[in-house]
Design brief:
Rna Polymerase Sigma Factor, Chain: A, mainly alpha
Amino acid sequence: MFLKEEKQLIVRLQRKDSREAAFKELISLYKKRLYWHIRKIIISHEDTDDVLQDTFIKIYKNIASFKGNSKLYSWMYRIATNEALSFLKRNSKHQQHRLNEVANDFAINNLTSDIYFEGNDIQLKLQQAIATLPQKQRLVFNMRYFDNIKYKDISDILETSEGALKASYHIAVKKIEQHLINN
């Protein structure tokens, strides 16, 4: 979306008389991208749908307070990321597991039985390697490698420095390489 079009959409979203139509447009523009971003964190299709719905509800409730200090897309990604991480934290408390263990075990054990996973053996091994990463490295790797998001934008989304992100990405790549070599 071009900057001018994004600004026009934001204005329409923040006006009560055009909010509904503008929000439908926003959903059609970003639903798929946000779904796959959340899916890489949550893994499960059903849970991803729930978190995506919660994400759009939060966006709708807070769009009036969006100041434009970042791109709309970055702001929505931050909300989606926070909603996904909150979901994992809530589930990890119920299951008495650490956050990363829940996500890793779920990804490794359930990806092969997931009817929505359409990858081949190589993609499965890559996803299993990614699932072994700590949460932050997994997030950074997925956002940079699969979504091709610039470090500046990831920095806005995760509210951390670009240098730390570059280091996390580099370490993640090395761990993935090592995992693939060993398995």
